[in-house]
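Tokens help. One example:
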Amino acid sequence: MEWVIIMLYGFSMSIVCFFSLAQLNLTWHYVRKVDDPTFNNEPTNLPFVTLQLPLYNEKYVIGRLLDAVTSLDYPYTHLEVQLLDDSDDETVDIIDARINQIKSKGIDIVHIRRKDRTGYKAGALQHGLTLAKGELIAVFDADFIPEKSFLKTVIPYFKDKKIAMVQTRWTHLNENFNLLTKMQAFGLNAHFTVEQTGRKKAKSFINFNGTAGIWRKESILDVGGWHHDTLTEDLDLSYRAQLNGWEFEYLEAVESPAELPITLQAVKTQQFRWNKGTAETIRKSIGKVIQSNLALNHKTRAILQLLNSTVFLFIFMAALLSVPLVFIKNEYPHLKTIFDLGSVFLVGFIAIGIFYWFAIQASQKHPLKYFCIYFPLYLTFSLSLSLHNSLALLEGFLNIKTGFVRTPKFGVRKHTDDWKDNSYIQNKISLLNFMEGLCMLYFAWGLGLGVTFQHYGFLPFHAMLTLGFGYLFFDAIKNNFKNVV
């Protein structure tokens, strides 16, 4: 049994280390990047653009979204705005109260209401696509505020007829709202700098992030439109299009500001959808990637990109096995050499540290201070989500179908903004919360064993796991108690 635990732990950590090295490879491509030619001039022949805004119960942010999209620097004669509104709350009335005023400015805006939410966001986008007049389709979620110059900045990249989609970088309206928003920004900034740019510079697949991008309508139709058989319709369409020969562009320099979720429950809802949808997309697409005629290096990166979220399964497995390993290390001192060899996994830790270091350098004025404070906090937060995200992945792999659960929006930027009475917040204790509480106790036990046996190698790991799961558990208890009171 001892050898089984050691081997499973070694296997899990090897996978984690391998994915960390893959991130280091992207970092290498990112660092050696050369500037792409930019298009500073306005496009001479302005294409007709359809701006799609998929909505579902967005009463706190719909006003600012309408303000932004009706202020875009683009001729109204070449622009159509589709409000793809599946709402069943006051959002509908807010739109109805403003839409005639907007139309009076000469803006072609349509309020599209479906009879039901079939296909959720993907279904709404596909329905809108069948009605769209534009040759280019820009997509913005409700929590985004597109910059006035967005269309004129991005559209020139479609001069290349092979380009199907241009994605821009998310920035954050409320990054400093609380520690949770800072942790989200930490991870997203790395994705939108090192990952996306690194893949683009390596000439490998990148992905549409579901919003803040523009599609060539022809390319969507070419691969069969939006599908709603996964919860990540953006990733699914990205792979179908690129496997069919279309190319993507990523613009790190073009910012698209958006609101980050400010409650833990909202973050977990978003993470669950992203990870489950990714697993569903893996089931659907990985075979096609393997059988494709992509060059081996591009095929490998495409596979790793699809599988990247599965690292949570191996992190959680390694975490569970690390506690009995403390016992084994104490009871079998002759295995010391085996445990010493485990230090090779520090390579993965160093690799992921380098990955985030270069991401921080791209976004922070004082990178060293920021790294020293937030890198360990972010690792702790990521470890705490390993159980939650693993369950999401397993549901996706087992083809357990559930509905699209939206991430609630709050319409806040500063900590002083009022959000406590947000009607979209639904805090309740779940079985998962109790499992997270048990994990906290389990890893606290492992922490105690390490001190008792004077084996300190797992101490930082168990400390982060204890703190992380403790945060998830007590946050759920605190918010549920507030609801009861």
